[in-house]
Design goal:
The chain has a 5-stranded mixed β-sheet with strand order 6-7-8-10-11, with no helix packed on it. The longest helix has 20 residues. The chain is of the alpha/beta class.
């Protein structure tokens, strides 16, 4: 059960009535009644600055003293070694009296995890020794039956959705030149849908959509090239197709209500 959460995004703060990390840390310090904690999971570590990092240290300290059994810190991509080492040493200091816990830092890649998108994450895990060792082995042991995910696994069926097409000015080998709403020509790489998707974090994306260009699987349409649609992008990250569509529909409906207000 999720007992507490934070977000630095105003949208999620408003929709779920949750605080940012600084407010949450202050509440932990001032309140005698603390929420129960078993796991502490922190994503997007690359976005933390000196102020929010201090708030996070407060939360980690509180969690470990309350008996948390696992702590996960995750960076998207490859952060500087110095920053990762500082956080690893901090957690080790905070848990030095917890002989049941072990800390390990590893890199997880989508290309070796049967994912649809080739993400890369740097992760610090503090957990029981057996859990930490099993997790570390899972990142290096090869599964002979594993199949690499592909973009088409996350796409809608052919001719299911007629959206996301480009106004193509010129096609080249694996490249497309498009015309945006301001009349400017832009060049994008066309990615093979039979292969794993490149990471959106390290690959130049189409600014308006935040995704990449692919060859469409739709027949008899005006353009041979399309973007990965928003719900398809969510599916790349592991959401079911149904959940991905529902999430996009909910967010669009909220946006429309806010416009009318």
């Amino acid at each position: 059960m999720l007992t507490a959460s934070t977000s630095e995004e105003e949208y999620w703060q408003l929709q779920h009535d949750i605080p940012n990390i600084e407010t949450f840390a202050k509440r932990l310090v001032n309140n005698t009644a603390q929420p129960p904690v078993e796991w502490l999971i922190v994503t997007n570590m690359e976005k933390y600055n000196s102020t929010t990092s201090e708030a996070l240290r407060t939360i980690i300290r509180k969690a470990t003293t309350q008996g948390a059994t696992q702590c996960i810190l995750m960076w998207t991509g490859k952060p500087p070694d110095k920053i990762v080492d500082e956080w690893e040493q901090y957690i080790k200091r905070e848990t030095r009296d917890r002989t049941d816990l072990q800390t390990a830092t590893r890199t997880a890649r989508g290309s070796t995890a049967q994912a649809y998108i080739d993400t890369e994450h740097t992760i610090i895990l503090t957990a029981g020794r057996r859990v930490t060792e099993a997790w570390s082995r899972s990142l290096v042991d090869e599964d002979p039956y594993a199949q690499t995910g592909t973009i088409e696994n996350a796409m809608d069926a052919p001719n299911e959705s007629y959206t996301g097409y480009f106004n193509v000015a010129r096609l080249g080998q694996n490249r497309v030149h498009t015309v945006n709403s301001q009349g400017h020509t832009q060049e994008h790489e066309i990615y093979n849908t039979n292969k794993i998707s490149p990471s959106f974090h390290t690959t130049p994306t189409i600014s308006a959509q935040g995704t990449i260009a692919i060859a469409t699987n739709d027949a008899e349409v005006t353009s041979p090239v399309q973007t990965i649609r928003p719900w398809e992008a969510l599916s790349l990250f592991g959401f079911t197709k149904e959940d991905s569509r529902n999430c996009c529909l909910r967010r669009n409906s909220v946006g429309e209500r806010q416009k009318r207000q």
